[in-house]
Write a structure and sequence with these properties.
Blueprint (H helix, E strand, L loop, with lengths): L2 H4 L13 H11 L3 E6 L2 E7 L25 H15 L3 H4 L7 E2 L4 H11 L3 E6 L2 E7 H10 L12 H13 L11 E4 L2 E6 L4 H12 L6 E6 L9
Parallel strand pairs: 3-4, 7-8
Antiparallel strand pairs: 1-2, 4-5, 6-7
């Protein structure tokens, strides 16, 4: 699936001259956590609840202890100035995030998820030919997962030999697998793993890999004890 398949198309936007109070009312009344900022037909920023966390009106503005070296170090002074703008700015233009991260409407969901995770954002505008056409949020991705269904399987995919071949092919592509082919047996749709001292994460990953193979009815683990150390 692509961004265009899951995005919200009726995007609520605000103008840069919208007051902070009106923005807060909009977010609260609509039950949303952020909106793009649009001027003309261009997205010039994005503003969210996070931009309103530290406000003078609510007594939550950041309080930074003065430092003796503040006159010689521009970085704390610059950050303090930014914090003051965030807490006292009166319009969306003052508090919005100006570096807009966006995706194309043709971007696949893996790319969208990677963009959101890498940049630690909860929503991303969707663009087409430079114009805003939608927005994808984490909720959209979760709903896409809930709606996803496995493709119907042919009768041959339930065959034990076919299941085993597909599973071994999947495991051969994973660098975390420390397992011989002989340690994987499929009988009546049940995958049997013969395991030694594999870490818990690897055992769980093996189970998930097996469960994702069409036709698998269950997974069983058989623990093989480590051979005793020879006595000298």
């Amino acid at each position: 699936m692509r961004a265009m398949d899951v995005m919200t198309t009726k995007v609520i936007t605000v103008a840069p001259d919208t007051s902070v109070q009106d923005l807060a009312s909009l977010l609260s009344e609509r039950g949303i956590s952020g909106v793009p900022v649009v001027e003309g037909d261009r997205v010039i920023g994005i503003v969210s609840e996070g931009d309103l966390l530290h406000r003078a009106e609510t007594g939550t503005e950041r309080r930074i202890q003065p430092r003796r070296s503040r006159w010689f170090d521009d970085r704390p002074r610059e950050q303090s100035a930014r914090d003051y703008i965030k807490s006292h700015g009166r319009t969306v233009r003052d508090v919005m995030t100006r570096q807009v991260i966006a995706v194309a409407d043709t971007a696949d969901l893996a790319e969208v998820a990677a963009v959101m995770e890498t940049n630690r954002i909860k929503r991303v505008p969707v663009m087409r030919s430079g114009k805003l056409v939608g927005i994808v949020s984490r909720a959209n991705l979760v709903r896409a997962l809930a709606a996803a269904k496995k493709e119907p399987t042919a009768s041959t995919e339930g065959d034990d030999q076919t299941i085993r071949q597909k599973l071994l092919a999947e495991l051969s592509r994973r660098d975390w697998v420390k397992l011989w082919a002989d340690d994987v047996i499929v009988k009546d749709g049940i995958v049997h793993f013969w395991l030694g001292e594999q870490p818990e994460a690897e055992r769980r990953a093996l189970r998930i890999a097996a469960e994702n193979i069409p036709g698998v009815r269950g997974v069983e683990e058989h623990i093989v004890p480590a051979p005793p150390m020879p006595a000298f």
